[in-house]
Specification:
By secondary structure, the protein is an alpha+beta fold. It contains 10 helices and 9 strands. It folds into 2 domains: 9-171, Jelly Rolls; 183-296, Arc Repressor Mutant, subunit A (Orthogonal Bundle), CATH 1.10.10. InterPro entries: AraC-bd, AraC_XylS_family_regulators, Homeodomain-like_sf, HTH-like, HTH_AraC, RmlC-like_jellyroll, Tscrpt_reg_AraC-type_HTH.
Length: 299
Amino acid sequence: MAPDVQAAFRVVAAHRRAVDRFWRYPPHTHPLFEFNLVLEGRQRFVVDGRPILQSEGDIVFVRPGVVHASEGSAAGGTLIYFALHFDVDDPAFRSALLGVEQIIWPANGDAATAETAPMRALRSALSDYMAAVVEEADSTAAPHDGGGPRIALLARAMRLFAAVGEWALSARPETAPVRREPEHVLALARTLEDELRRRAVSESSDPVRTCIAAIAGRLGYSPAYCTRVFRRVYGVSPRGYLTGLVVRQAKLWLTDPALSVEDISRRLGYRDPTHFSKQFKRWTGLSPLGYRRLVHRPG
């Protein structure tokens, strides 16, 4: 009998953006995997303290929890890039992705860094998905489109899912096998992850340790064991994972000018908007209003 196959591949955020020579993005982390592709110009990128000069066509891969930043255009002119943030809940798939150590994948390498077939397939899938994102965004103005652009976007997301999987298996070092955790370990990690996702938008101000302790007590495990299991499966601590979810949701809501910072802080469970603003700046290097000005700044 064939095994039951269930996995969630979430494209959390994807955008194509043109920025001027003054644009910068400060050091930050999140619990997601990220591809950053330069479409025009050159970008000065920093990943885990390592400076990278990213040329047109180069792809940078960032793993969850890794500090990264953009120091803007290296050429002094307009920079156009495409960023895609994604997550996958299957532990074996995550293990393969976490095992990929190479950060930059150049468009034009020498014989030692020649592009593989899985990398070419990934590059093609990213380009197709980027085109679908633009088409779907343009279709929002159409009153009746029959759902065509949305279905095309989903179809290309599935193709991207397959391409990422093949690339991850080919890109990880041969000394980094995909680890298969026992089923009870995976079930516990998934339960914790589901709870953290609900909590990120629950308006609850309880500390994350309270959440972990409650689940641990209900399932008969110690909080310390639950934390170790979660880190083993997802690559970050529960606190770090929840922080990333909260930051992502805050950024999403900050793009909506109809929502005030006070509205957003309340939705995220903060009783004091000032405390939320301080936390947001600590996490991202920008105040909420600073981030809002950044994303609405003309390219």
